[in-house]
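EI: anyone free to look at a 79-residue chain?
SC: sure, send it
EI:
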Amino acid sequence: MANLTVTLPDPMIEYIDGLVRPDGFQDRNAVFEALITDWQERLDALNTEIKVGLDEFERGEFIRVDDLEAWGETLGLDD
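SC: here you go
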Protein backbone atom coordinates (compact mmCIF):
# COMPACT_ATOMS: atom_id res chain seq x y z
CA MET A 1 0.00 0.00 0.00
CA ALA A 2 1.34 3.45 -0.92
CA ASN A 3 1.33 6.53 1.27
CA LEU A 4 -0.24 9.84 0.28
CA THR A 5 0.12 13.16 2.06
CA VAL A 6 -2.82 15.55 1.79
CA THR A 7 -3.04 19.12 3.05
CA LEU A 8 -6.55 20.21 4.02
CA PRO A 9 -8.05 23.30 5.64
CA ASP A 10 -8.63 23.10 9.38
CA PRO A 11 -12.45 22.81 9.13
CA MET A 12 -12.09 19.70 6.95
CA ILE A 13 -9.61 18.14 9.36
CA GLU A 14 -11.98 18.87 12.24
CA TYR A 15 -14.83 17.25 10.31
CA ILE A 16 -12.75 14.15 9.55
CA ASP A 17 -11.53 13.92 13.13
CA GLY A 18 -15.16 14.16 14.30
CA LEU A 19 -15.89 10.99 12.35
CA VAL A 20 -13.10 9.10 14.12
CA ARG A 21 -14.69 7.80 17.31
CA PRO A 22 -15.61 4.50 18.96
CA ASP A 23 -18.96 4.29 17.13
CA GLY A 24 -17.53 5.69 13.87
CA PHE A 25 -14.39 5.29 11.86
CA GLN A 26 -11.26 3.72 13.32
CA ASP A 27 -8.88 6.39 12.00
CA ARG A 28 -8.42 9.09 9.34
CA ASN A 29 -7.38 6.51 6.75
CA ALA A 30 -10.67 4.66 7.20
CA VAL A 31 -12.56 7.93 6.63
CA PHE A 32 -10.72 8.59 3.38
CA GLU A 33 -11.14 5.00 2.19
CA ALA A 34 -14.88 5.16 2.81
CA LEU A 35 -15.22 8.56 1.14
CA ILE A 36 -13.28 7.51 -1.95
CA THR A 37 -15.13 4.19 -2.20
CA ASP A 38 -18.45 6.04 -1.96
CA TRP A 39 -17.27 8.56 -4.57
CA GLN A 40 -16.24 5.75 -6.94
CA GLU A 41 -19.58 3.98 -6.50
CA ARG A 42 -21.52 7.19 -7.15
CA LEU A 43 -19.46 7.96 -10.26
CA ASP A 44 -19.99 4.42 -11.54
CA ALA A 45 -23.75 4.74 -10.98
CA LEU A 46 -23.80 8.14 -12.68
CA ASN A 47 -21.87 6.80 -15.67
CA THR A 48 -24.31 3.90 -15.91
CA GLU A 49 -27.28 6.29 -15.92
CA ILE A 50 -25.61 8.50 -18.53
CA LYS A 51 -25.04 5.44 -20.74
CA VAL A 52 -28.69 4.44 -20.36
CA GLY A 53 -29.78 7.95 -21.35
CA LEU A 54 -27.45 8.07 -24.35
CA ASP A 55 -28.59 4.62 -25.51
CA GLU A 56 -32.24 5.72 -25.22
CA PHE A 57 -31.47 8.90 -27.15
CA GLU A 58 -29.79 6.92 -29.94
CA ARG A 59 -32.88 4.70 -30.17
CA GLY A 60 -35.07 7.81 -30.46
CA GLU A 61 -36.61 7.31 -27.02
CA PHE A 62 -36.90 10.93 -25.95
CA ILE A 63 -39.31 13.84 -25.95
CA ARG A 64 -38.61 17.24 -27.42
CA VAL A 65 -39.07 20.10 -24.97
CA ASP A 66 -39.45 23.58 -26.42
CA ASP A 67 -40.82 25.29 -23.31
CA LEU A 68 -38.75 24.38 -20.25
CA GLU A 69 -40.97 26.32 -17.87
CA ALA A 70 -44.13 24.53 -19.00
CA TRP A 71 -42.37 21.17 -18.93
CA GLY A 72 -41.10 21.88 -15.41
CA GLU A 73 -44.65 22.62 -14.30
CA THR A 74 -45.77 19.19 -15.54
CA LEU A 75 -43.10 17.69 -13.31
CA GLY A 76 -44.14 19.77 -10.31
CA LEU A 77 -40.98 21.89 -10.48
CA ASP A 78 -42.82 25.20 -10.29
CA ASP A 79 -42.79 25.27 -6.46
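EI: The CA atoms of residues 55 and 61 lie 9 Å apart.
SC: 👍
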